[in-house]
Amino acid sequence: MSVQITTAFVEQYRGNVAHLVQQKGSRLRGSVRVETVVGNNAFFEQIGSTAARKRTSRHSDTPRMDSPHSRRRVSLADYDWADLIDGEDRVRMLILPTGPYAEAASFAMGRAMDDAIIDATSYDSSNTVDVQVGGSATDVGLNVEKLRAAKEVLDAGEVDPDDSRFCVVNAKQLRNLLAETEVTSSDYNMVN
């Protein structure tokens, strides 16, 4: 038996790259307004609601209605992502790494977008929904009743029903929701 036989051993390489488990891009970008901004800041004008006043007499003065007007400022933030691949490294590889590395960069930037969207989202504690279970308020995870209560809060606040509504949930909340018969049974969820 030759002691140099190991030089004949075969090493197998693959010509493709698999990304490890990760969130691939942004999940929330479609839920926000995307604008082109030139400069450091942008401003968005907002007008609130007013009420019409009943006219009580003919030829009366026109009442002045002060419309609530506010301005929201958004500031640009820069993000970086870079990885280095030397020319010598590319010669020694079966794969061309630029495609998979560019995908990894895109995934990372998408996750950064989601983080920025979540951080910029204002939370009003008056919009918290309490659900009564067995006569007392309790946190039983995400369930159909909480979704109904959240919809009621949005509808009561006159949120435009033509605007898309989004519900951001984590894995545990989704698991709680999928444990409900009303979600998984076609007897309940095929309402026209």
Q: What brief labels describe this structure?
A:
192 residues, alpha+beta, two-stranded antiparallel sheet, 4 strands
Question: What does it look like?
Answer:
This protein has 192 residues and is of the alpha+beta class. Helix content is 30%, strand content 9%. It is built from six helices and four strands, in the order ββααββαααα. Strands 1-2 form a two-stranded antiparallel sheet. Strands 3-4 form a two-stranded antiparallel ribbon. A hairpin with a 2-residue loop joins strand 3 (132-133) and strand 4 (136-137). The termini are far apart. The mean pLDDT is 83.
SSE topology string:
EEHHEEHHHH
Order of adjacent strands in the largest pleated sheet:
1-2
Shape: elongated
For the report, how would you describe the main beta sheet? 2 strands, antiparallel
Average pLDDT score: 83
Radius of gyration: 28 Å
User: Helix count, per DSSP?
Assistant: 6
| Spatial gap, N to C terminus | 77 Å
Percent of residues in helical segments?
A: 25-40%
Oligomer: single chain
Low-confidence stretches: none
Structural class: alpha+beta
